[in-house]
């Protein structure tokens, strides 16, 4: 958020557990992207596939489930149909041609201390800067909102994450079949 202060002006907040817990506590809803920037960087060929990569052995992408379970809030999968077709970015197109997204994923698997966070931050900054070089393409966009993911007191966060992943992928497969 420090690098891009305009994000705060449009209502974005840091993706931290404390922020989400505070918002849910006062009655707001939170929109989260469990895959984060890593999921956005996997390339057009992998579009419309739920990919919540682990950044490290400790990371499990279950923070959203833990927060929702603690707050007793529903997890509602949402999907924007045709989101990948609404723009053309020549830089990303060329990057996909060279399999740069695959290279990034391969580097992330090694989890080398000190180097991985540096590579991650550089790649994410480059990715964000390159998003400004795109051409809009007129397509019909439709927001699909799925049924809430059911969970109970005895469910683990891992179970809730798996159900959420399946619910989101099912919603995508139903409305974006290709």
UniProtKB/TrEMBL annotation:
<keyword id="KW-0808">Transferase</keyword>
<protein>
    <recommendedName>
        <fullName>Acyltransferase</fullName>
    </recommendedName>
</protein>
<dbReference type="InterPro" id="IPR007130">
    <property type="entry name" value="DAGAT"/>
</dbReference>
<dbReference type="Pfam" id="PF03982">
    <property type="entry name" value="DAGAT"/>
</dbReference>
<dbReference type="GO" id="GO:0016020">
    <property type="term" value="C:membrane"/>
</dbReference>
<comment type="similarity">
    <text>Belongs to the diacylglycerol acyltransferase family.</text>
</comment>
<dbReference type="GO" id="GO:0008374">
    <property type="term" value="F:O-acyltransferase activity"/>
</dbReference>
<keyword id="KW-0012">Acyltransferase</keyword>
